[in-house]
Amino acid sequence: MSNPLKPTIKTEIIPGLIILITIISNFYFYANFPDQIPIHWNFQGEIDNWGSKTFGAFFFPAIIFGMYLLFLILPYVDPKKLKYDQFRKTYHKFKGLLILFMALIYFLTSFAGLGYNINIDVWIPIIIGFLFMFIGNYLSKIKPNWFLGIRTPWTLSSETVWQKTHQFGGKLFILAGAVMILIPFTPFALQGWILGATVAIVILGTVGYSLLIYLKEK
Question: At residue 4, does pLDDT exceed 90?
Answer without folding.
Answer: no
